[in-house]
Amino acid sequence: QVQLVESGGGLVQPGGSLRLSCAASGFTLETYAIGWFRQSPGEEKERKGVSCINSSDDSTYYSDSVKGRFTISRDNAKNTVYLQMNSLKPEDTGVYYCAADVACWGTSFHSWGQGTQVTVSS
After folding, report:
1. Are 36 and 18 in contact (CB under 8 A)?
2. Strand partners, 95
3. Do 120 and 12 touch, CB atoms closer than 8 A?
4. What is the pLDDT of residues 72-94, one digit of tens each?
């Protein structure tokens, strides 16, 4: 009933760009904070927060490693949140997930999708 689906990943060279999409079904995305998380290669199942966008005022948050390079945005008409990723670096490689919560950065993110793979390599 409640579902998030990530898409848009792929293989790019360093310096390239990707736009990830987080599409919602079963609920209205605009009423929730949406966070993007990354599981890096070699890690256990820990997912580290990359970016988040609130619902009340659309305020945004970024991890230090992606500030100035990534942009999170929301398209309420499409019930979708995007993560524009520019100037990609090899350390950005990983599986990216989106999830919903009441606010950024909450501790009760839910409705995790299956993830989308991002690989930055020469």
Report:
1. no
2. 39, 117
3. yes
4. 999 989 999 999 999 999 999 99
